[in-house]
Write a structure and sequence with these properties.
InterPro entries: DENND11/AVL9_GEFs (IPR051731), LCHN/Anr2 (IPR018626), Tripartite_DENN (IPR037516). It is a single chain. By secondary structure, the chain is an alpha/beta fold. Among the domains are: 117 residues, no CATH class; 178 residues, Rossmann fold (3-Layer(aba) Sandwich). Helix content is 31%, strand content 15%. It contains 15 helices and 13 strands. The strands form three sheets. It has a five-stranded antiparallel beta sheet. The chain has a five-stranded mixed beta sheet with strand order 7-8-6-9-10, covered by helices on one side. Helix 12 crosses helix 13. The longest helix has 24 residues.
Length: 496
């Protein structure tokens, strides 16, 4: 659990001052540390990422710069145990924040890009409604339902990540008892922002939490929100397509923003990925396969929904691949975060996504998803995918290694008295290395004189020749890899 910082007063909208934004890569010790953590990444022209997961005390801080910004993290919901793309019909949009490969190659650092700030309230007669926003002409249709999840009246506070057309949003919700018959004893509001990238939204969590309390206690006082918007607003290009142009920065910018997995920033406080895996246990290997196959994954949970939004993000991280050019022909694995019934039409056009909802009615809309997750129960109504729900010996071995590496890391941190958690990096790199190994083997076979995938190849990829056969067939088809996959009888090959 990361304690909420009290540093930012109500009117202080600068969550992380400029001097604190850059990780301490300027010091020789940190530079060596970051470089050691990145040395195994491929260059732009490289083919293979031979990622080391050495957790010995000799390399305890290989990627500590990634979590160096968490000092002022405001998140209060830290664990599952608390349980406390397409255009979306609004234009052809590019989604920032998901592709590790693209971030590493372009070499730019994200700047403040707030395109809207808003206040949503619950009216006893009209329901959810937008009370105030800047700019006044921004299209916020549907945001009043995205930023105040169905069922939120039962809880006192929450935070919600969501998607709105080209943009991603973060809203903080709060419910305050009041002695008012008109408000039926409760005042409920959400304060939120929109940005073209979800990776920087965490910076403003504490400010939004403060502001929603401010709006509950002093309704109608918007001057802090106005000042925040003027300070952080994005400059939209003149083309009118609603997208924010991201400007390259100096090549001397923070190494971690260019080369590591910058979308990790959403996970502040540290612990999101490790809690995600502990929550699902061995089932994480089932989710990993569905993620690699780019399936439509829908997670149901009653409020609060903030921790479930983290699970959406974590599912997306399972499919990371750092081999250049791999996966360009498959649907992008997009996080929708929180959805409600107003998103049904948009989901109907998506080929691949991960989303969460508090509305049980979605379980009946089987045409909208391939995989449905209720608490820790992972299921699919598609007969062809049901064999993937069964764990095999290779799955259990991978999970054992994952847990073993985590224990080694924790031991290393305890021995070195290092309080900085690197579990997120370990888990991200574990699955990326696994994915790279699979696609590297398949790519080399496809380009060889004998593109035959044998049982030995399958075992070398960390898969089960029998239990993962169906998974491999689907993988070859989806990624368009021309490899011959043999069945038990070598006289009867099946071409995939």
């Amino acid at each position: 659990m990361v304690e909420q910082s009290d540093r930012a007063p109500l009117l202080d909208w600068e969550e992380v001052p400029p001097a604190e934004l850059a990780p301490t890569v300027s010091s020789p010790e940190t530079e060596d540390s970051v470089q050691s953590g990145l040395s195994s990444y491929p260059t732009e022209g490289g083919v293979r990422a031979d990622i080391s997961l050495n957790t010995s005390p000799a390399r305890p801080n290989s990627v500590t710069a990634v979590s160096g910004e968490s000092a002022h993290s405001p998140h209060k919901h830290s664990g599952p145990g608390e349980d406390a793309s397409a255009t979306d019909g609004e234009g052809d949009c590019a989604f920032h924040g998901l592709s590790v490969r693209d971030r590493r190659i372009t070499g730019w650092e994200e700047k403040d890009q707030i395109v809207a700030v808003f206040v949503v309230t619950f009216d006893t007669r009209s329901g959810n409604m937008i009370e105030w926003c800047l700019p006044q002409d921004v299209n916020l249709e549907g945001v009043e339902f995205k930023s105040m999840a169905s069922g939120s009246h039962r809880i006192s506070s929450d935070f919600i990540y969501f998607r709105k057309g080209c943009y991603f949003g973060l809203a903080c919700f709060a419910n305050m008892p009041v002695e008012s018959e008109l408000e039926r004893g409760a005042r409920m509001k959400s304060v939120g922002i929109l940005s073209p990238s979800y990776t920087l939204l965490y910076r403003y969590m504490h400010f939004l939490e403060n502001q929603v309390q401010h709006q509950l206690q002093c309704p109608g006082q918007y001057s802090p929100l106005e000042a925040f918007y003027e300070d952080k607003k994005a400059v939209l290009p003149s083309g009118g397509n609603g997208l924010v142009t991201v400007c390259p920065t100096s090549a001397l910018g923070p190494i971690v923003n260019r080369c590591m997995h910058p979308e990790m920033k959403i996970t502040h406080p540290a612990g999101c990925m490790s809690q995600f895996i502990r929550f699902f246990g061995e089932q994480i290997m089932v989710l990993w396969k569905f993620a690699l196959l780019r399936k439509r994954i829908l997670i149901f949970s009653p409020p609060p929904v903030g921790v479930v939004c983290y699970r959406v993000y974590c599912c997306c991280c399972l499919a990371n691949v750092s081999i250049p050019g791999m996966g360009v022909s498959v649907p992008e694995f997009r996080p929708f975060f929180y959805i409600n019934v107003a998103d049904i039409a948009a989901l109907g056009t998506e080929l691949s996504y991960v989303a969460c909802t508090t509305e049980k009615i979605f379980e009946e809309k089987k045409e909208l998803y391939d995989v449905y997750i209720d608490n820790q129960n992972v299921k699919t109504h598609r007969e062809s995918l049901q064999p993937l729900l069964r764990l095999n010996s290779a799955d259990r071995e991978k999970y054992r290694k994952l847990c073993e590496q985590r224990q080694l890391l924790l031991y290393s941190q305890e021995v070195d008295r290092d309080c900085t958690s690197n579990e997120e990096d370990l888990f991200i790199l574990f699955f990326m290395e696994q994915n790279n190994r699979i696609f590297q083997t398949l790519s080399e076979l496809a380009g060889s004189a004998d593109p035959t995938l044998t049982a030995e190849h399958v075992r070398a990829m960390g898969l089960d020749p029998q239990g993962d056969r169906g998974f491999l067939i689907d993988l070859l088809e989806i990624y368009g890899i021309d490899v011959m996959l043999f069945i038990d009888n070598p006289c009867c090959p099946s071409h995939s």
